[in-house]
Amino acid sequence: MPEQNTNRALTEAAADEWKVLPSGLTVLVRPMPGYSGTHVIYATRFGSIDRDFRVDGREVHLPAGVAHFLEHKMFEDEDGDAFAKFAKTGANANAFTSFDRTCYLFTATEQLDESLDVLLGMVGRPYFTEQTIAKEQGIIGQEIKMYDDSADWRLITGLCECLYHSHPIRSDIAGTVESIAEITPEMLYDCCKAFYAPNNMVLAAAGSTSMEQILAACARHGLMEARPVERVQRLWTEEPMTLAAAEKTITMPVSKPCFGIGFKERPLQHDDLRSEILYDLILCCISGGMSRLYRKLYDEGLTNPGFGGEVLRVDGCCCILFTGESDVPDTVKQLLLEEIRRIRAEGVDREIFTLCKNEKYGQLIENLENVEDSASQMADFALSGQTVAQQIATLAALTAEDADAALQKILSEERMAVMYIQPDGTAGEEPDDEEEMEE
């Protein structure tokens, strides 16, 4: 009974105001009385993996990096740069692109209506020319080089290249200098028509605001009017469950060797958040901060404190990745595999499972107290067709027995790939005078 009361209280605390507008846009608002700021996110189900699709009876095939490139270009229109407009309202704006979504956001403590108009206007009225695209290609080319220098990111992309033969998750979110050179205004307009339609988007706001204020902004931008529903068919190449490669090694200017261990899993249905939460709990039991393995690795100095696992799932793809730094990565890999085998045979530790579940509860509830996290949480779950309250209910229903059953099917060593990053010996070196001048 106490647990049921707790779950009910958590669900009620996470109850959001939710409305689907005549245009098809999903709007979520969490008024937070007493807070001075408001965080707003405008998100679309369009990310780096959405490269092949059919719209208006035409097939569209995109080079890598278009979704990220489009995110950058959305901030520019005939009247100038949207960042300058946000600066005039006092809002702090940003945006990001992931594998399966693009999000535009801002935080404001005043002039909320004006900031909403900037956000809805820039996303609702895209503007691209050959000249503005050419300018952006140079800017994003520099960003791509920055990602190439990130060991953490190279581990993820390297593991995806090993695990997948053809799924577009193999490609870097930002693309390559060569791939973004192929982008045209027509490609960007095709993407806007297909994926920036209101029925494919979510608007979430949390903080010092109300549903009425958000809906009034939507009305000013025509989002309260019915619109034709864009029927977009994503085109996928069937991905086998075999590996593209079992191992990959590269060198980089890092001070300590980095490693990644990836397991290829069967893709989950779009609305199957239950399995994703369950996999996450299993990882917490295997390698989380409260696990026996983590304590051993940390106490013996075998890995850095950042070692851990994560679930990466998008349409057509699901994998489980463990990453970290270690002077003895093969020893860590062997200890990880032994721990997976042990827990698979004995079952997850019931006490640790309960602690991990409570930790997830705590993260969900902690996010409700912060305007940025609260809006992000609403938008993330809404893009998958769920509310925060439903997520809490799903978490509450999971049992250790569910984890035991799932562990019999996932983390198979036959579908495991390993990625190594070895130091190239240049970490910490000072650039010579010639290099400094070139920069």
TrEMBL record:
Domain Peptidase M16 C-terminal: residue ranges: 183-358
Every Peptidase M16 N-terminal domain range: 64-176
Gene3D superfamilies in the record: Metalloenzyme, LuxS/M16 peptidase-like
Organism domain of life: Bacteria
UniProt feature coiled coil, ranges: none
NCBIfam families cross-referenced by the UniProt entry: YfmH_fam (NF047421)
PANTHER family found in the cross-reference section: METALLOPROTEASE (PTHR11851), ZINC-DEPENDENT PROTEASE (PTHR11851:SF134)
Protein name as it appears in the record: Insulinase family protein
The organism of origin for this protein: Faecalibacterium hominis
